[in-house]
Amino acid sequence: MKLSVIVPVYNVERFLPRCLESLLRQGMGVGEYEVICVNDGSPNGCAAILAEYERKYPDIFRVITQENQGLGGARNTGTAQAQGDYVTYLDSDDYVIDNAYSYLLESFCQDQPDVLCYGYTCIYTDGKTRQYSQDPPDGVVIYDGDGVDAYNRWPLTFVWSKFYKRSFIQQHRIESHIVACQDEVFNFDVFRRHPHTRIVSSNVCRYELGNENSIQRTVNKEKVLKTLADMFTNIDYIFGFLGDEHTEIRPAAMRDINYFLNVYHKKQIMVFLTWNEWHAFHKKMQGLPAYEPVPSSEARSARWLGVVKKWSGQSYLFYMVICFIRNVIFSRFIRPLMQRKKTS
Fold it and tell me: Full-prediction pTM beyond 0.85?
């Protein structure tokens, strides 16, 4: 079997059929690929949709149901059951264009690179417009070499825009971490091990920005607090690769730490933290450096991060003002006005 597609499913009833239908149009026959859907305790109608596809296409779709473990846990469950030479992951609110996977395998995987990286296009589904691309997949190789070099050059962030050789994942016992921003940590674990990496200019994934239930758009305070705590877990892990024995991957480690710090500062203003919550987090944050980034094109982001770290730890009142502007003035008044203008 050539490919295993792992699809974690949680609270995506609106988008799930589009995702699964796209996987039926990949130009691959029975026995060439499998789709492992992991129903991660989804509370809505996803289970019925998955059961229907498994009934209609038993040689392609396999459904695993588990109690909610989060995105990383669902991916680990699917990977453990995979049979393909390659494993890829597709979020269930996204989709891929027709014949994309067969094209990538036949055009760029004949000599079995450890990781194949490809591109994506962002879409926004407003509930009325169906955005299916009929363009055939195409692309060229833009990099072929060592994974450490590639990861230092580019933030190859998302797991759903890559094929991973399953034997490479198994050999190094790489799993998704059960934390927010697990893609970054997973790929750090992959690329620091020098995989043969190939990057191609094929934008075959369609990344949905209109899912209000997306992890990236959550405003639930409990989940935001967990995300803030997870940032420290991620940073502590990546800090272990800043020593002299890891000089090759150090530029990427510094970039990833900056990214986690940025996520922290963006997430904290999505909810109103109490003074005790805010103080506890910032006491830890103030001891973390904002690293000079590599490449230098990221210097502006690092300078901004240094400024934000300074003011955000000094005044709880200032923090509350920023939260009010973001969560009340912008979210309740300005954003709805912008959306009405966009749809009119």
Answer: yes
State the Cα torsion 110-77-252-216 to the nearest 10°: 120
Please name the helix (run of DSSP H) or strand (run of DSSP E) that holds residue 278, with its range, or none.
helix 275-285
163-187 pLDDT, tens digit per residue, is 999 999 999 999 999 889 999 999 9
> Hey, what amino acid is at 109?
C
Residue with tokens 């790489």: 174
Q: Which pair of structure tokens corresponds to residue 306? A: 């240094």
pLDDT digits (tens, 9 = 90+) for 104-163: 999 999 999 999 999 999 888 875 555 555 678 999 999 999 999 999 999 898 999 999
- Per DSSP, the three-state class of 155 is coil
Spatial contact of 118 and 200, defined as CB atoms under 8 Å apart: yes
Question: Which tens digits make up the pLDDT trace of 38-75?
Answer: 999 988 899 999 999 999 999 999 999 999 999 999 99
Q: What is the C-alpha to C-alpha distance for residues 7 and 40, in angstroms, rounded to an integer?
A: 10
Of 111, 194, 182, nearest to 150 by C-alpha is: 194
**CB-based burial, 197-223: b 16+ in 10 Å, e otherwise:** bbbbebbbbbbbebbeeeeeebeeeee
CA distance to 166, 310, 335, per residue, from 270 (Å): 38, 19, 14
Give the strand pairing for 141-146 and 196-208. Answer: antiparallel
Q: How far is CA 82 from CA 186, 195, 302, 314, in A?
A: 17, 20, 40, 50
Rounded distance between C-alpha atoms, residue 187 and residue 267, angstroms: 22
Length of the chain: 344
Q: Which CATH number fits domain 3-208: 3.40.50.11060, 2.60.40.790, 3.90.550.10, 3.20.20.510?
A: 3.90.550.10
